[in-house]
Known about the structure:
Elements: H1 6-11, H2 14-36, H3 49-56, H4 64-73, H5 93-105, H6 116-133, E1 140-144, H7 147-160, E2 171-176, H8 181-189, E3 197-200, H9 210-222, E4 226-233, H10 245-255, E5 258-262, E6 287-291, H11 292-295, E7 303-307, H12 350-360, H13 363-384, E8 389-391, E9 399-404, H14 412-426, E10 432-436, E11 439-445, H15 453-471
Parallel strand pairs: 2-3, 2-4, 4-5, 5-6
Antiparallel strand pairs: 1-7, 6-7, 8-9, 9-11, 10-11
Amino acid sequence: MESIPSSLEQAFDPEQFRKLGHDVVDRLANHLTDWLDRKPDEAIPWESPAPSLERWSDLAPIEMQTLFESVIDHSVKLHHPRFMGHQISPSLPIAAVAGLVTDLLNNGMGVYEMGIAGTAIDNTVVKATAAKLGFDQGADGFLTSGGSLANLTALVAAFEQLPTTTAPAQVAILVSEQAHYCVTRSAHLLGVEPEGIIRVATNDRYQMDLSAMRDACSRAEDAGRKIIAVVGSACSTSTGSFDDLTGIGDFCRAKGIWFHVDGAHGAAMAFSKKYRHKVAGIELADSVAMDFHKMLLTPAIISALIFRDEQKSYQSFRQKADYLWSQSSEDHEWFNLAKRTFECTKSMMGLKVYSIIRAHGFEVFDESVTRVVDLAQAFGTLIEERQDFGLAVSPETNIVCFRYAPEDQQELSRINQEIRQRLLEEGRHYIVQTTLEGQTWLRTTIANPLTELRDLNDLLERIEQIGQAKCC
């Protein structure tokens, strides 16, 4: 057999790795300093898709320092205090270092023997999260790749509660009309008919209306459908509104219906002493999905799926796989994660959360969540104080939904769409937009705890300038 090719030896060279790693960390640290100081001025280096694709279509060899610097320059700056766009946190440096460790180790975690450290770390993070949400020691779950997959897995478990003779056409799921689209998508994947996906009306605060929920349940049952789950939003994506989890939970317990909470964004409020009350009743849920990467300063994508009853966490993916484990697939082994997760080669994601906790304590989650929600409420006040602005609903989390709305203007949707596009192209502020009752609204997610009131005032000033020019 021939000797190992020199190109492979070079690709694995520890000294090259050491040198490049030092250079990359230094570069990132310098950029982090600049971003926090609002340098450069832009939070997003906007570029349309076609030239971006052309830029990255070249596959010729290049110095890695040059490549990485170009990637940094042409990427969104989540650590910039004027990044207020989508629901994703700026990641803490310690979590990024943990990511470097896990990427090099590359331990898949479908079976325990491939994730000896990682499996135990995941379980520790999950148990701590369950406790923060108010569950007792009988709760358990796992980390998985995103809230969409967590919600799907929970609904699969709810479906498995039904008698085996129940056909998908006979079932129904109740969700808020403001629920995230992944809930409806999950129901479709389960084979639930469109008529079985019942979108419940919301009140004037965009929360699921409990009376409408009860009526919808009765109508579905009268039509011969079996309600497999009610999904509460904590919080809704567009406005950050929290459903009445206690009211839904009490209803579901009385009816024997699975109660799932899509807490991908807002369940993290449980980590804030000041705002824990926003998720009161979440402990009544049979299952809860929560993303660490939305409010808890953790790199994407890391989500927890918690089951109030540990045994229910094994229901979603029961199947025979002798090449993975020696014990029966029916044996409930917390350490063989492929018995519970959709993923088999599951990444060692828990170390990123675990490293934050071990380095900074749960206090950093408390302080960050509290800070961004405080900022959102202050932003809401700033908006209400300006004559030509309107607030969709008083902020309950770090999401703020508002628009430029002079009284004498009729085409407010068009004007706000153009404002948002102008802001995007300028790149100085990054915000998004949403649609409420057929109208376009501007939407911010204040994810960076180092954002200040001056950044929020600056945003409103620029919106007003653009809006006045559009209205003339």
